[in-house]
Amino acid sequence: MPFYKRLVDERNQKGSQVKVIAAVSQEGAKAEEQQKLAAAGVNADGVVVLDFNSVKLRGTPTIVLVDNKGEVHEVWVGKQAASGEEEILEAL
Fold first, then answer.
1. 14, 62, 63, 79: which is deepest, by most CB within 10 A?
2. What is the pTM of this model?
3. pLDDT tens, position by position, 57-73
């Protein structure tokens, strides 16, 4: 959660238009995820229910950078090392 808080905070500081959306695989998990994010101070733009198999996500956490046309530009799978986190932040 600390990285996701940093991601949202830096996004806001940069004035980036990037949206941060959390996804869960079941409707029943949505409220719990919203609570976890709020407790960690992560002000995500939303939490959605997503069939991970339908978009070929094989593991979590996964960060997907998608443009406003729906085109995927980058995918990061798994917990990132510091260098991976910096790469994600630079993509903002």
1. 63
2. 0.85
3. 877 899 999 998 989 99
